[in-house]
Here is the input.
Amino acid sequence: MATKGRPRSFDRDAALDAALTEFWRHGYEATSLSGLTRAMGINPPSLYAAFGDKRQLFTAAVQRYAATHGSYSARALARPTAREAVETMLGLAAAGYAEPGHPPGCFVVDGATNTTDAAQDVREELRALREGVKQALAARITADAAAGLLPPVTRDEADGLAAFYASVIQGMSTQARDGADRATLERIAALAMRAWPSAPVGTAIAESPESPESPESPESPESPVSPVSAAGGCGDGGGRGAQGRTATAP
Here is the structure.
């Protein structure tokens, strides 16, 4: 008869949340194994048994972020129009980046800063998530231009417009880490929306909500993509574009 393994004596989700916070606060390479085990309240053998090595733990932390703090990008991309998606994403980023209880800013933007070539795969993992959001935004913009909700010229500028808003979101993350509060980030978001292309004359535009939903709101629209592909918020979550392509995650 096979012997049953010893049950884990720790809460896996709580330990993973603690690891996420460490990676988020310090970045991948600056986060030590001793710091991780201390924060997680486990010893190294338990970490290896539950999560694998540090690199595997980092990917698990990315997935955890995608399912929690970083889920707002996918929720925003579920909005009916590209404008609503961008406006919602900016508003939720402003609220989430300055929210107390976790490090400021976006983990997918800041989790691999100041890394060496040894962590190239970590940088690529997070870069792919950010690129996925830009592709999803560009697809939504292209679709709205084709539907007459945006000027026809916008179809040729979709990639640049998506990159612009990705840059705004990433800049908001940096501002949050520098101490900007929610009101400041919301002001940045509002100013950025002034750059949105005007709709063609005679096009009805749905009014956006005065106050974006909370990043943790249970009433938000269900995301059309998996939590993993939605990582990052941060202009860093993923979504399904207008052409049906799935973004892995600016």
Remarks:
- The first helix runs from residue 12 to 26.
- Residues 90 and 206 are 17 Å apart (CA to CA).
- The two ends are 53 Å apart (CA to CA).
- Confidence is low (pLDDT under 50) at residues 1-7, 205-211, 214-231, 236-250.
